[in-house]
Amino acid sequence: MELIRTEDISNYCRQTTANESLKAKILSDVDSFIVRKNLGAKFYTDLVADCDNNDYSYTKYAPFMEGTNYNDECGNLMYMNGLKKCIAYYCYSRICRESVLESTKYGMVQKSGDYSVAPSKAQIDALSDSYKGMADEMMKECISYALLCQKQGDSLFKNVLNGKRNTNITDYIIINKIGE
After folding, report:
1. For residue 167, is pLDDT > 70?
2. Helix, strand, or coil here: 110?
3. Within a 10 A sphere around the Cβ of 155, how many other Cβ atoms?
């Protein structure tokens, strides 16, 4: 089960005309290979268990999923965008790479009305990388928030990263905090 619906990609990020089956495939991949890896399988399972399958609302993890204001360790007011928005941005990044092209007997093309144009790979990569970079920043925010909650003894976040630091994103956060 995914943590957001396919229509949430347009709600939290940008409108897309990609077909539903492509969005569902990408969403499944993002949940399985990015979110689960970065947050840890146990915590991911906790999030799935908290999800209401009818409307994809959350009870215990609503602030983490939707975004929230919080105070960091130094007392500074911070804002975390929420995991739903983060997932939507990862999905949109992948959609940019996978849906702009159509396979024809003349090769891969970008449809533009009745005509087709060959988009530059650089254009597609730049757009996709831009959204992936924003998603990475949001994932760092989510992990920082979850680790802070874990450090403050919030039992909801005890399974974040399966109880240990195991991702490059977490290492990046810790190294940046040391450098500040």
Report:
1. no
2. strand
3. 8
